[in-house]
């Protein structure tokens, strides 16, 4: 693995010679051509180099989806630096932790996040702070500097190897401190090889980047490969269902990655039935459990919603469901990607489970899998075994065909009366309750059973369903010990910036609403101990 690899910045500069006037990025209805993008990347690279950035220095970006995100990523690659995208929704102390943990040298900040960085500037070892070229007049003095380097001063992009670190992406961190996932150029290249081998994406087409780019799915599924392959990335700062549908029709979007809650919002949009979606061949959903009803809902409108599964540590996909199987297997996350392997092991022993349909922990091995966590050998050793298998912490199984099914996160299991209750399994049933637009299930302490399931529902219109109505709906589809014993109604579920349910926040809300001695607890005969 010592061979040289093409630097992504080199790819952009070459496209600026081959297709100088072709649109590389569309943002706020304005086009940035490959020639303009190449020039801008060199400007940013020259600025960073003048500020002391060298190979292996960490360069962070804090801001929403924008061309500046991609320019900073490519400028860091140009210099051989390590890109660190920061979740723009984090609190100041969380941002400080990530910048400090990564040892960031320079940080590029959108103007709207300047106040946050000023608040923590003395807490992090950052040498340089940059705003874009539209910064106010005072930006050039003191702490802040504009990104106004001379493109002619930028040397050619450095040569990179497969094992060189391209970026650090911090995990969602719904429990405990996030860890910096190391992603090498080899990891990113093999992910692109997986995507382009398994998914119907073609050169010079358009993709829509509306999921957060700091999330591995939002960046590595389509935008990075599309851009370095000479295609167009339509960038939106935030997600708006109607705007998203308009973009698909207007720009003839061929590929798009979103999390389930975003695809569900599109399906509910009144413009959905009359929007021309004929260009959309690769509509990929991942990042959270996917309700089968969502997949079938899209299939009824002629759009095969293709489920995938992966993690930041797998850069991004480990499995993918081909369009031809969407209708027949709407609950499946698909087959292992061409250059990845997936197996199931017993969580207690780590031994492989060969029998189809038996649930265990899913493990992934392949050149797309991270070599580990930044400056944390203990955490690395805990999840990557001696044979190179990454233990994902996700529970699932493989059927007779090798199709993968995701059951839940190992740490999210509710153990009630000695029985395992999967929140995701209960949620899949309750998503079909009339009027329910979002649902989460959490365990709360119970003096008799240890834990008991609580249904946390977001309901649209009418009277919110009672616990008796919820249980009656799910009875016959779930064992009695899996039925929720209480219901909590919210306007919206807490979610992290990747669109995933914030399980820790849901558990905290449920625990605060229902104490162990709460009289609302169902009597023992209604709860049921086993079936």
Give a structural overview.
28% of the residues lie in helices and 25% in strands. The chain is of the alpha/beta class. Among the domains are: 1-161, ANL, N-terminal domain (Rossmann fold, 3-Layer(aba) Sandwich); 413-527, 2-Layer Sandwich (GMP Synthetase, Chain A, domain 3). The strands form seven sheets. A nine-stranded mixed sheet has the order 3-2-13-12-14-15-16-17-18, with helices on both faces. Strands 5-4-6-7-8 form a five-stranded parallel sheet, with helices on both faces. The chain is globular. Residues 517-531 have low confidence and may be disordered.
Summarize the helices and strands and which ones pair or pack:
Layout: E1 4-5, H1 8-18, E2 23-27, E3 30-33, H2 34-50, E4 58-62, H3 67-79, E5 82-86, H4 92-102, E6 104-109, H5 114-120, E7 128-131, E8 144-146, E9 160-161, E10 165-170, E11 180-184, H6 185-198, E12 206-209, H7 216-220, H8 223-228, E13 232-235, H9 241-250, E14 253-258, H10 260-268, E15 282-285, H11 292-299, E16 305-310, E17 317-320, E18 335-336, E19 341-345, E20 360-365, H12 377-383, E21 390-398, E22 404-409, E23 414-416, E24 419-421, H13 423-430, E25 436-446, E26 450-459, H14 467-474, E27 486-489, H15 503-513, H16 524-527
Parallel strand pairs: 2-13, 4-5, 4-6, 6-7, 7-8, 12-13, 12-14, 14-15, 15-16, 26-27
Antiparallel strand pairs: 1-9, 2-3, 10-11, 16-17, 17-18, 19-20, 20-21, 21-22, 23-24, 25-26
Helix pairs in contact: 1-2, 1-3, 2-3, 4-5
